[in-house]
Write a structure and sequence with these properties.
EC 1.2.99.5; single chain; 37% helix; 414 residues; Prok_molybdopt-oxidoreductase; globular; 2 domains; 19 helices; Rossmann fold; Dimethylsulfoxide Reductase, domain 2; alpha/beta; oxidoreductase; Formylmethanofuran dehydrogenase subunit B; 19 strands; 9-stranded mixed beta sheet
Length: 414
């Protein structure tokens, strides 16, 4: 029996204290990890192998077919990479430049604007270690980490004893939930749950800013002013506050201007930071690398040494307009996460799916290349949701190729 500590790549927390028991190259037991992490670490890739037109082939044949598709495409799309290693992401960006591809990831319809604002230093942020050690006021806004990131509260935010918060949640931390429903996280927050109607976040922010400024807060949905003033007083007393922002908030507001205003006022009264609740283990890493290369975090089009950017280069708009004629999908499943009215257009073009598991996308793909599970069967590095770099080793060994190896072979063949 072997027993070591590993990094879990099951979500954006990249927990690095996972204990695993393995025997004969099979993970038997996983300790410390949450239910998401246990399922991820014990995931069985299976011998799916390689397919072309749903017919089993060898690796070389699958790669040759993928290369042929990319060579013949006038405007290929590369999409995904949120769960890929840093090494794979760098290769994908190089590949996109080489074949003049449109390049996008899920942040274009999730938390991309927030990640971009943080990268540009337009919003104040901090690390999860800072939260654990210093935070006294914690807001979970439009997110339910008890379900999506189960160890956020126990390992990093509300419950742990920090170096400057030894008395923890009982005496030194206040947890607040702002959401449209009473989630599991909201129940933990108790009386500090503020339930607002769908699309009511912008108004609530304006009312909260009014309360922070000593004015009487008002909303069209008649949220009790006394409750908003109560919240404002808690926030003004924060020595180290943090807001974990989820998609519930981002989808509710038209742009980030309300957040900019709120953070400006909060930091005039107290000390507040913001962390996006990204789900994929390395989507922040992809955003950072693409921004360093192009000045944008997603939705770019490479064309003969130049870079174009705009919503028309996102996967959603590209498929709507039918401007792409081939797609390389890496480590994600657009057939499951995008509306049918949009994703049905993928059925009209050749699709290459590179993934560690069988998905709706892989089942409909012209070429399917089955790869290792990053962090379980292959190592590498990634960027945690707070921007901290993390390296990891494989838990078990396999002869199956990683995404990085496959992209290198495609690049060489091109």
């Amino acid at each position: 029996m072997e027993k070591n500590y590993y990094v879990c790549t099951g979500c954006g927390l990249l927990c690095d204290d996972i204990e695993v028991e393995s025997e004969k190259n099979v993970v038997n037991k996983v300790y410390t990890a949450c239910r998401v992490g246990v399922a991820h670490m014990k995931e069985t890739r299976g011998e799916v192998g390689f397919r072309v037109d749903n017919t089993p082939v060898d690796e070389a044949t699958a790669i040759n077919e993928a290369v042929s598709i990319l060579k013949n495409a006038k405007n290929p799309l590369i999409f995904g990479l949120g769960n890929s290693t840093d090494e794979t992401q760098k290769l994908a960006i190089e590949l996109a430049k080489k074949i003049n591809a449109t390049l996008d990831d899920t942040s274009s319809f999730c938390l991309g604007p927030l990640s971009e604002a943080i990268i540009q230093n337009k919003l104040k942020t901090c690390t999860l270690d800072d939260v654990r050690n210093k935070a006294d006021v914690i807001i979970y806004w439009g997110t339910d980490p008890s379900d999506s990131h189960p160890r956020l509260l126990s390992k990093h935010s509300y419950f742990p004893r920090g170096s400057e918060k030894q008395r923890g949640w009982e005496e030194e931390r206040t947890a607040i939930a702002i959401d449209v429903r009473k989630s599991h996280t909201a129940k933990i927050c108790g009386n500090y749950f503020f339930q607002i109607p769908p699309k009511g976040d912008a108004e609530f922010i304006d009312a909260l800013i009014a309360g922070l400024s000593g004015k009487i807060p008002k909303t069209s949905y008649n949220f009790p002013p006394k409750r908003i003033l109560e919240l404002a007083n808690i926030l003004k007393g924060a020595k180290f506050g943090v807001i974990f922002v989820g998609r519930g908030l981002i989808y509710s507001i038209d742009d980030l201007e309300p957040l900019f205003k709120l953070m400006k006022v909060l930091n005039e009264k107290a000390n507040f930071h913001l962390i996006p609740m990204v789900s994929s283990c390395n989507i922040v890493g992809f955003n950072e690398k693409l921004f360093a290369e192009t000045g944008y975090v997603n939705s770019v089009k490479f064309e003969d040494g130049t870079v174009k950017h705009g919503p028309e280069y996102s996967i959603v708009e590209s498929l709507k307009a039918k401007t792409v004629d081939a797609a390389l999908i890496i480590g994600t499943d657009p057939f499951s996460i995008l509306p049918h009215s949009i994703v049905k257009n993928l059925l009209e073009i050749p699709v290459i799916s590179i993934d560690h598991c069988e998905t709706l996308t892989s089942k409909h793909a012209k070429v399917y290349i089955n790869t290792t599970i990053s962090g379980v069967e292959s190592g590498g590095s990634a960027t945690r949701m707070d921007g901290v770099k993390v390296s990891f080793e494989p838990v078990i060994k396999t002869d199956h190729p990683s995404e990085e190896v496959i992209l290198k072979k495609i690049m060489e063949a091109l």
